[in-house]
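Repro:
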Amino acid sequence: MANLMKTGVLLAALTVLLVLIGGALGGQNGMVMAFVLALVMNFGSYWFSDKIVLAMYRAQPVDEAAAPALYRIVRTLATRAGIPMPKVYIIPGEAPNAFATGRNPQHAAIAVTEGILRIMSEEELEGVLAHELSHVQNRDTLIMAIAATLAGAITYMAHMAQWAMIFGGGRRDSDEEGSGGGGLVGGLLMIVLAPLAATLIQLAVSRSREFQADATGAQMAGQPWGLAKALEKLEVASKVAPMNATPATAHLFIVNPLTGGGWTTLFSTHPPIAERVARLRALARSQTR
């Protein structure tokens, strides 16, 4: 419940940012434009994001005959979770990773790489798939798509406002005359800070949903050890065989497919794996008491 409330507050903050930057760009008309842009982008994200990302990573659909073990685990977990059997895909490549997509449980898909199938035991693979099915069950696939779309809209409008100021558009002249340049300074701050704030809020949404999916996935699998061991293995393996992924889709995967460390982890779509594993171990200890 706490994670759900936090996610709602963060999505509301993204919406407020979008309206504010729309107002900075064009007053009341700008706010209307921002609202319409958000509607259009969210509509496209709702209906087409799953097809786009599956095509982007050349994911191939498989049935039970082609991947019996994978299909069996997904079907068993989906039955436990009380959700429809999702479509199953395999992504060509050695980089070990997996993601879930789809606008709701009735239109969901689970995609795993060839690499993750090679290195995972059945217990570990079950933990990974339970985590991804938890995203479907919790409707995180839709929540994170909306967050990413709103953040993208804010960044797009900030660029529009930047070019409007450069070429004398918007309300620059009236702001300078009415407030001695205060309006211009405020507009510049909005242009610079709004995309940064939107990105940080989107990352916070993504991290919150990852923690929740770990907990729900452990419950779905019946124990947290499989997922904990899988995350530890993925942390090492993903560095040996990094994935060629785009930042716009990084939030989808079970572990961050983008390389980097140090201060760049502040801008990661995922919590540190060590922290995720620690929480799963604490959950396991609480279950044995």
